[in-house]
Design brief:
Length: 495
């Protein structure tokens, strides 16, 4: 029969270092160490208060005893009556009473000296220890406990962002990646790393602070015990200066900080959905982009990312520590038009959906990019085109500010101009509709102002009638004149 396995108590290395290296938000309370040290200070303060109260009571007793012995001394202070009947030498009765007076006075002086010693030497040491412990407690409260609160706040912020990432990675699988730019799992994943970086800095600062506090605690406890050695005799002097600290660190090893533990690093931390496909970019790197401001010239370098959510994001850089990685520009590629690369340059025309002021002012615009090499430009073009879902040849792009429907017409005009044709497009002229009221006969009626071309009923097109005299009048003017004269002509015919 196999003997039951006894689970060993977790060592400090497994409880602190493993948690620090694996989990993004450890379950350990950051106030544990600081709170334990605060309780330790409280215990020392109470011990010193007990000793202070004991010494005050002893000092009061000696003061009271000195007064009582003074009363005793008064009873034998007067010389013996009829003293001439006693021998005044030291061995007689008169000498006996003199010895009693001397001994009583000695007791009075001893009590007075003890009272002065306690009040002037021992009590000030204990009172100073009391003040030092209170000051140490305040220092711990404003230092280590404050850093513990900062760590707890940073962990809560990280946890909220991790939960937000989990929501939108699940939404990516359900909806196929239709997100707002700020909800892109790639952007959220970088946001988690940014908040983790701040959290790790706070945790490492707290670790260093607590190591310094623990080292100072050991020295401080030595100072307390040595101060007690000056005050008390006997048992107190037999206590070694580091006896209590060694016993405390052995009992509370799982709650104290190990000075040999390595600092936390973001690279060693794992968090949920950090490896989800929606958080992995299709392509990322630095590109140069021409400014959308027509008054400026030249290119500026930024960091660009094509994500599985089909966004082209622009960031200032790829640093997740100094600033929150929020996109400065976001283009949804299925709604964009991608121009074919020319050497190391290519264009993307679309609307900035990042919500920034520049995107709201610019609206839909054409962005001119320049890669580091023609091969890299071709690579960016293929990835962007694949994310946009295009399968045919790259379309021709219009000038910035034009609509997508105008692109084809402008391209056709440009092609016609390039072929050498001088034919200008004919203007569109409005054609009057068939007449439905007034004179509808087939007779030709002369107008005193102009001659109008009658309309054949049901034809749907204006057909001129042959006339002996040609009148050179613009079509719109003739139509307007005819409509003005029709009621007058009708009255003449009825008469």
């Amino acid at each position: 029969m196999a003997s039951p396995q006894v689970s060993a108590a977790p060592s400090r290395q497994t409880t602190m270092a493993s948690i620090a290296s694996d989990e993004a938000v450890p379950d350990t309370d950051p106030n544990t160490t600081a709170g334990l040290l605060t309780q330790r200070l409280q215990a020392w303060k109470h011990a010193v208060v007990y000793l202070e109260e004991y010494m005050e009571a002893v000092e009061r007793i000696h003061r009271t005893q000195a007064k009582e012995y003074e009363r005793v001394l008064k009873t034998i202070s007067k010389p013996l009556r009829e003293g001439q009947h006693f021998d005044q030498s030291l061995g007689g009765v008169a000498g006996f009473f003199e010895n009693m007076r001397v001994n009583t006075q000695a007791l009075i002086n001893t009590n007075i000296e003890t009272e002065k010693s306690i009040k002037g030497s021992a009590l000030p040491i204990v009172e100073r220890l009391h003040k030092e412990i209170k000051h140490k407690a305040k220092e711990l409260a404003h230092g280590a406990e404050k850093s513990a609160k900062e760590v707890e706040k940073a962990r809560n912020t990280t946890q909220k962002h991790i939960e937000l990432l989990g929501q939108h990675t699940a939404s990516f699988e359900a909806t196929g990646g239709k997100h707002n730019p700020s909800e892109d799992p790639y952007v959220l994943s970088r946001g988690v790393v940014h908040r983790l970086s701040k959290q790790v800095i706070e945790e490492n600062n707290q670790h260093n602070d607590l190591v310094a506090v623990q080292t100072n605690f050991e020295t401080f406890e030595r100072h307390i015990v040595q101060a007690l050695h000056q005050d008390m005799l006997g048992a107190a002097q037999s206590v070694p200066p580091d006896f209590e600290w060694k016993a405390f660190t052995k009992r509370s090893a799982d709650a104290l900080i190990n000075p040999s533990d390595p600092p936390r690093t973001v690279e060693a931390i794992q968090f949920p959905n950090m490896g989800h496909p929606s958080t992995k970019p299709l392509l990322e790197g630095s590109l140069e982009r021409k400014s959308r401001n027509k008054l400026s010239w030249g290119y500026t370098t930024s960091y660009y990312v094509v994500t599985p959510c089909k966004f082209l994001h622009e960031f200032k850089d790829d640093d997740n520590l100094r600033r929150d990685p929020v996109p400065e520009l976001s283009i949804y590629l299925p709604d964009a038009v991608i121009g074919a690369p020319h050497a190391d340059k290519f264009n993307v025309k679309g609307k900035d959906r990042s919500g920034g002021m520049g995107g709201r002012l610019a609206g839909t615009s054409e962005l001119a990019f320049k890669a580091h090499s023609p091969a890299e430009a071709e690579k960016w073009f293929n990835v962007i085109r694949g994310a946009a879902g295009a399968t045919g040849p790259a379309p021709a792009l219009a000038s910035p500010g034009g609509s997508g429907s105008d692109a084809a017409s402008l391209a056709a005009v440009s092609a016609a101009a390039g072929s050498g044709s001088e034919e200008k497009p004919k203007p569109v002229v409005a054609v009057p509709s068939p007449q439905e009221s007034g004179i509808t006969g087939g007779d030709t009626v002369a107008s005193p102002v102009a001659v109008a071309s009658p309309v054949v009923a049901g034809s749907g097109a204006a057909t001129p009638v042959s006339m002996d005299k040609k009148v050179s009048v613009d079509a719109p003017a003739a139509t307007a004149a005819a409509s003005d004269e029709k009621p007058a002509v009708g009255k003449e015919e009825k008469a």
